[in-house]
# Entry
Amino acid sequence: MITAQAENDVGMEEALSGSFVDKNNPSKEWIRSLRKRYPIEHELDRVLTRKLEQRGGPGFSQVSLEALLAGVGALLRARLGEEPFQLSDARWMSGGSSKLQMAFTLDWDRPGLGREKTKMVLRMEPAESIIETSRLREYQLIKAFEGIVPVPPLFWIDANAEFFPYPALIYGFASGINRPTQTRPNSSRNNTSGVGIWVPPELRKKLGAEFVSCLAKIHTRDYRSADFSAFNVPEVGTDQCAEWGLNLWDRVWEEDSDEDIPLMRLVSGWLRRNMPVLDKPSILHCDYRIGNFLFDEGEGKITAWLDWELGCIGDRHQDVAWSTSMVFGGLDDEGETFLVGGMMSESQFIENYEKSSGFRINPKTLHWYKIFNNYSLAIMTIGTCYRIASNGKTHQDVLVASLIGAGYATLNQLAKQIEEVL
# Structure
């Protein structure tokens, strides 16, 4: 049987020998070959296949607030029937480098609560995104954690773009901020969400305790207790979980990259030869970090976890590795110790997590996922950011193009990590 890595090597040999694939107008045969070479979860396969099938079409065109409100109205009439409602206060939301977001107010008879004006958010894909994900998976993840960890209230989903130009979901507006208002003394604010965050000392303990507690609750939630029909569950005692994840990113690199980087092939090969065995499947957020939650600064309390789009059922080490990434945090006040999310040292974070969750963290597995996560970051920035910016597929083309440079810093870190294990 030909493995995904062997298939990848064959594909690379073909590329180096001079055969040409037009990735901006991919053929059905090439798409079919990718799906065969890189088996992944069924819903993710659907999303990536749709992306390639539509790639040769028009780029992103600006959608007006009026058009999106009309889409909201059509969706509500289909969902609410004859119930009267009124939409107002539509406005664009800042941020959202991977998704387009509009805030609005719905005046309606809310079930169980009566007449009210509810602040809501429409979250919609552009033509192509930094990360191609499923709104259905995002919806099911948030729904599964209502009452478990703070999440925004969910209302409706348009998984197949029946009412909007692209798939979308609507959830309630959550209060809070995503970064401290106070900055490190004698420094300027970094406007990139979650990157280089500094948390004031008086906030670290409270916010850090919330940060660890929510992660433990996510990982200890039984995936069988909620609807996860858009997910596949990896088999315990095998490396299937790691293989699915690596197949996903190897496939995205094949789909989006425009240059051959030998280091990427070296890293992929090492990851594939050293895939860890899964001891217990856990629900993962997969972007668990500061910048992706809102909090009340006065109380030091998390008010909502956002951006669940990458979530899956997998290995808890992936979330822990992502949270402890050097990208998402900063040094302590003495400039010596890295603080996870700007809140606590990595050793303290892992110790607190193990106490809260009852799960152990295997250092070897954790290191594998740290390399895996950096590999995925490099693919997003050097591969996908380039592709969607050059093809005009996103509403944030300037921001996305600027992120390409960050990919080379990630490559430098990957090189150091691989040197340590080879």
Remarks:
- The chain has twelve helices and twelve strands.
- Residues 4-60+234-280+362-421 form one domain.
